[in-house]
Amino acid sequence: MPDFLLSQILVTFTLAIECYAMQLKDKNRLLALLSLSCLFNGAHYLLLGQQTAGFIFLFSSIRFLISIKWKRQWMAAAALCVSLIITYYTYNGLLSILGFMATVLITTGSFSKNDKFLRLMMVFGGLLWLIHNVLLGTPVGVLVELVFVGSSAIGYYRYYIAGRMKNINF
């Protein structure tokens, strides 16, 4: 099976997992599922020859699991340092920079104790990964990020905007 086709199959698992995960209210379950999705996404990028994105996602799988238990800012800083080291050693231009910037946003959100902030960082980080995937030319990867950003925005709306709208008396 060609690497490109296998990469698209693997990232399809990411798509299914993330669609479900971003609709969960329980932040720990959301982070656990994102950890699993990162394994598939990391393999997808490695098959496409994108080492920066691949290794960042494999490390992100571990980072999401750590952030379930510990929300210490120094751990977020350590995770960002590891991501920076990965980016430095695998650097291949604009795609590496976009991936790192997206990781900064998502890492900052995942170590936050605030679910609302987490979801906002997921939207903005997802938009950067969307640009990354468009430039890379991975069709299912683009779909993953479109759905991820859309699902994140819908989850944010459901939990933080729609509830407020019900309490407004006209």
UniProtKB/TrEMBL annotation:
Pfam families (alphabetical): Imp-YgjV
* Segments crossing the lipid bilayer: 45-66, 95-111
Q: Does the keyword Membrane apply?
A: yes
- Keyword annotations from UniProtKB, A to Z: Membrane, Transmembrane, Transmembrane helix
> Origin, by domain of life?
Bacteria
Q: What is this protein called?
A: Membrane protein
